[in-house]
Specification:
- The chain is mainly alpha-helical.
- It has one domain.
- It starts with a helix and ends in an 11-residue tail after the last helix.
- 33% of the residues are buried.
């Protein structure tokens, strides 16, 4: 399902838009916490600290963007009623993490911190690929609507994150690409389920297959 018409419907409604910003903020915050949870007690490199700090800052930045919307004051927390598709949203990242951990454990025979770190690499890569697609479309919709909300600074940082994750994955495994491709497929299915649910919330239905 195409995300652009969904975002156009969301941006045209202040309450939906406020909940959307809050949902993105929630997801950035959840990602930051997962990055921190993957840290070794002692061997913490600069990139991991940078990623966690920037994801937390993105969550804060998106929350601050709510001030630009009339309905922004309605989303002070991350309670379900203040998010779009809360169940799918909260399931998305956790389910991806579990599925990737299961795959990596089977393929690389990893456990403990090594498994956590490998999952951090592949899950973060998949999420950065998604962010690299999602945020520019959102910004395009915002610009077309003349919205005061902007995510341009996040787009620039997410591009940098993706490059950093690529470098780390190359160091992790010579055949990282085939494993990353499978992780991307896992994430794609979860993303499609999520946006399909978003579409139903904003009154859009998935396209029906053509029947001869």
């Amino acid at each position: 399902m195409d995300i652009k018409p969904i975002l156009e419907n969301i941006v045209s409604d202040n309450l939906l838009h406020a909940k959307w910003l809050n949902t993105l903020s929630y997801m950035e915050n959840a990602g930051a916490k997962k990055i921190s949870a993957s840290e070794h007690k002692e061997n913490v490199n600069l990139i991991i600290l940078k990623h966690a700090a920037e994801e937390h800052r993105h969550a804060y930045y998106l929350k601050k963007q709510l001030d630009k919307l009339e309905e922004g004051q309605s989303c002070k927390t991350y309670r379900n009623e203040e998010l779009l598709s809360p169940n799918h949203t909260k399931f998305y990242l956790n389910a991806l993490d579990v599925a990737v951990c299961r795959y990596l454990k089977s393929e690389f025979r990893l456990s403990g911190h090594e498994l956590k770190f490998a999952a951090y690499l592949f899950v973060t890569y998949a999420i950065e690929v998604r962010a690299d697609e999602l945020y520019p479309v959102y910004q395009e919709v915002l610009t077309a609507a003349g919205s005061k909300v902007t995510v341009k600074s996040i787009i620039l940082e997410e591009e940098g994150h993706l490059e950093e994750m690529l470098n780390q994955l190359k160091s992790f495994s010579a055949d990282w690409e085939q494993h990353a491709e499978l992780v991307i497929k896992i994430e794609q299915q979860m993303f499609e389920d999520w946006i399909s649910n978003l579409g139903s919330i904003v009154g859009l239905k998935p396209a029906q297959p053509f029947l001869a």
